[in-house]
Amino acid sequence: MILKHTYLLLFGWMVLLSVPSYGNNGTIELITKTTEFEAGQAITLKFSNTDNATPSLYVSNSYGATLIKPEKDSGILNYLIPQSISNKTGVVHWKLLANNSLSGAFSVISKQKATSIETYLGPPSIQAGGTDYSMLVVIPTDYLDNPLADSTKVIVKHQFLDNQNKEVVLMNHRIAYKNIYSEPKTGRILVSSECLEFNSKEYTVNVLPAIPTDFDISYSRNHDYADGNQITTFSTSIIKDQYGNLVSDGTYVDFFITNRSNHILKTSGTTINGIAYAKMIHPDHEDQWSVKAFIEGMAESKPIQLAYKAIISDFNVQFSENSRTVTIGPLQSFMHQMVPDGLEVSLSVFQNDIKLKTLTKSAFEGYATFKLDTNNFPSDNYTLKIETAGVQKTYTNVKL
Questions:
Q1: How far is it, in rounded angstroms, from Cα 246 to Cα 240?
Q2: What is the pLDDT along the chain (400 residues), one digit of tens a residue?
Q3: CB-count burial class (<10 Å; 0-12, 13-18, 19+) for 262
Q4: Distance between CA 50 and CA 40 in Å, rounded?
């Protein structure tokens, strides 16, 4: 029984403590009924007060929080919200630090007049064909840098060649965006936006050619002789994408050359006005080339065949009295002129079918001379094999 009376007494005290009050008998009530304010507007929350208490007001939004002291006027508590909060859009929560613990919230909305437009556009270059696109993101703001309200109309304008388009986009989550798709042709798309009669500056999207298509190659040369001196120039046809656009200048083209020995040579060039050129020096011996060009991972040509004729069918070799000086020449080309300087001549020395050494010289004024010193080749019988321009001569049992 005593326990029951104690429980009832404690419950009664809890009920009394839960009754809103401030001080002894006074109460505080919110007078301001407005719950939505425009950014930049002076915002004052008013509370009625029946005693002399002046509790602080705790205010917070997404930018921070603060405590506000009231100004008392004729029994009314006036709390002026600071500009750092009233100038920013969003929900503002408040709580009166009094015994009755009043709390609530109000909204700050932007002024529906655009004074600036933040614009983001990317990527700046897209591929022709109508499948690639650049995204335009527009954020109109008021004079306090607050994004305008959702459902605000934004006009997106873009121009390409003779076409001009306008589309209305509604803001959502404080932004408006639009995908700007490429055209079949290359060029520049000019993009701008407008909101509430305020216009952004002009932006540019470059429409570049799509992936190159297969192409042809050709060659030009002064003659078809393998003199190791002249240049063969390879060129592509005009390389375009599937929409007829010339590929971008600087597109890299590799030319792979397979010779008769299945060795692979490589040369390369970059396109200018859709055409790439590359050069390769003639072989120094009779040969057959198969040439094919590639734009790596994207396009290729059909192979072409080239034949090179030998410029030398025979040559003279002269030995000194002790055979240690070997002179090859005159080396004459297809018109009986001396071969160009630099033609490689090799002399291999064998003994008992074992190669001892290979010496190389570059022809000068039609001749190449080798001197076999006694330090490397002591007096004995040797086999000498001489080769130039694909022609070989072998001399056995040469006494040095």
A1: 4
A2: 343 333 433 333 333 333 333 333 357 889 999 999 999 999 999 998 867 788 999 999 998 999 999 998 888 999 999 999 999 999 999 999 887 778 999 999 998 899 999 999 999 999 999 999 999 999 999 999 999 999 999 999 999 988 899 999 999 999 999 999 999 999 999 999 999 999 999 999 999 999 999 999 999 999 999 988 899 999 999 999 999 999 999 999 999 999 999 999 999 999 999 999 999 999 988 999 999 999 999 999 999 999 999 988 888 999 988 889 999 989 988 888 888 888 899 999 999 889 999 999 999 998 999 999 988 899 999 999 999 988 899 999 888 8
A3: exposed
A4: 32
